[in-house]
Amino acid sequence: MFVLPVLQSFNVLTCSKMKVWKFAAIASMLLSSMLSILVCRDMFNGSRELSPLPSSPSSSRDSSSSSSSSSSSSSSSSSLRRSPRALQRHGSLLAQYSALLESYTEGEMRQLLSALVERYRQAVNSGGHELPLFPRAGGRRKRARARHKPCELRELEVSVSELGLGYESDETVLFRYCSGTCEAAVRSYDLSLKSMRSRRKIRKEKIRARPCCRPLAYDDDVSFLDTYNRYYTVNELSAKECGCV
User: Where is the composition biased (Low complexity) (predicted)?
Assistant: First the structure.
């Protein structure tokens, strides 16, 4: 039912055929599962409604035998009469669900596929190689490695106004900072301090139970002119050497 519109939409980008087809197959499986659940539920409800009610006990054994024979004949005839109606009911439900899927989800699938193709095109243009809906498992490993980088010196070119020191100037400076983790610098002091905090031996003091990546030495002073042609000098602005303290 969805093969023809899916194949028509896949001609937009040949490089994304397999990735978009994977998503279309998943969507078709979900829709088929929903349809099966709805049909089975309606069939169960219909069979429960069509099940005969238990007959009340008769006053005498003679009348029970005659009533049982008459009820068996009537139930057999009623079952013969109700079976076609039950089949017609389930057939009409299938027709309704099929009509609903054909009239509603086909257009939605077209919009979805066009949106996926557009997102893939944006990802390719921005340097990505994978759809956002199907991220690579290597991305998690890269983020984990980034969180465990050693303490090192980095630099960034920013304007003086972006430093947050209250100066207004369009001049740019090279801001050097320290970044990274200090897992290898953990000492017995840090482990003992962490244990004391977990045991609530130390509560109110604001302490750090692990070493931090901080500047060990600072770079030379930085001088600049602000927007009003006033001359300023800032000391200890950029880091010169980093370490775990």
Answer: 50-81
